[in-house]
């Protein structure tokens, strides 16, 4: 892995090639973006591409989803000069929370929590996660924000797969992802 090499021509999504394929089996995601996060220009370009569709939009706060969404979410919040809210898996927050059950990409039932004092009615929140595969995790985050009176200003992820859940989100919310249309079928088929 060359963390210094930057291509002379940087098209949207050039940094996707930095991701590493799964070598550990079916209990893990099929791609690991953590190497992309190690590349300074790759991370900057990824965040810029995610935020480009939201230029000029009213965004009050950025929320990242536990755990890898914390990386992109915090980077997006810093770029936008907005606060960052961590939406956590259950059991990690020692304050009053609102909870939402969901099924993750592996089919496991989980519980997500959001601190109740962070979202006020009308607060416009950009939700960020690393990946939207089945849409269950993102949909739980959306439900938590909206239950507390917040407004989902948008949804951003490196990839939004063309799954039933992914389509549900894209039909209802302004979305941004980094996968060029010509590569989307490969990502949807996990190739």
Automatic annotation (TrEMBL):
What Gene Ontology terms describe what this protein does at the molecular function level?
adenine phosphoribosyltransferase activity
Output the InterPro entries linked to this UniProt entry.
Adenine_PRTase, PRTase-like, PRTase_dom
Q: Provide the catalytic activity annotation.
A: AMP + diphosphate = 5-phospho-alpha-D-ribose 1-diphosphate + adenine
**Gene3D superfamilies for the chain:** 3.40.50.2020
| Pfam families associated with the record | Pribosyltran
Q: What is its main location?
A: cytoplasm
Q: Which domain of life is it from?
A: Eukaryota
Q: What is its EC number?
A: 2.4.2.7
User: Locate the Phosphoribosyltransferase domain: which residues?
Assistant: 56-178
Subcellular localization, per the record?
Cytoplasm
Listed under GO biological process in this entry are: purine ribonucleoside salvage
Subunit notes for this chain? Answer: Homodimer.
**Family of the protein in this entry:** Belongs to the purine/pyrimidine phosphoribosyltransferase family.
Return the PANTHER family for the record: ADENINE PHOSPHORIBOSYLTRANSFERASE, PHOSPHORIBOSYLTRANSFERASE DOMAIN-CONTAINING PROTEIN
- Please report the name of this protein according to its UniProt entry: adenine phosphoribosyltransferase
Lineage per the UniProt record: Eukaryota, Metazoa, Chordata, Craniata, Vertebrata
Q: Which gene does this sequence derive from?
A: Apt1
């Amino acid at each position: 892995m060359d963390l210094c090499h930057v291509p002379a021509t940087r098209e949207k999504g050039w940094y996707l090639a930095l991701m590493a394929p799964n070598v550990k089996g079916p209990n893990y995601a099929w791609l690991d973006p953590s190497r992309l996060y190690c590349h300074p220009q790759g991370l900057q370009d990824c965040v810029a591409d995610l935020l480009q569709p939201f230029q000029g939009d009213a965004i009050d706060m950025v929320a990242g989803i536990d755990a890898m969404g914390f990386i992109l979410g915090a980077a997006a919040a810093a770029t936008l000069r907005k606060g960052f809210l961590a939406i956590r898996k259950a059991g990690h927050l020692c304050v009053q929370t609102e909870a939402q059950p969901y099924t993750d990409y592996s089919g496991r039932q989980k519980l997500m929590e959001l601190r109740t004092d962070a979202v006020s009615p009308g607060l416009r929140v950009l939700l960020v996660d690393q990946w939207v595969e089945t849409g269950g995790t993102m949909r739980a985050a959306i439900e938590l924000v909206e239950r507390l009176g917040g407004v989902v200003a948008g949804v951003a992820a490196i990839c939004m797969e063309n799954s039933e859940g992914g389509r549900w989100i894209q039909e209802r919310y302004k979305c941004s992802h980094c996968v060029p249309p010509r590569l989307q079928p490969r990502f949807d088929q996990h190739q």
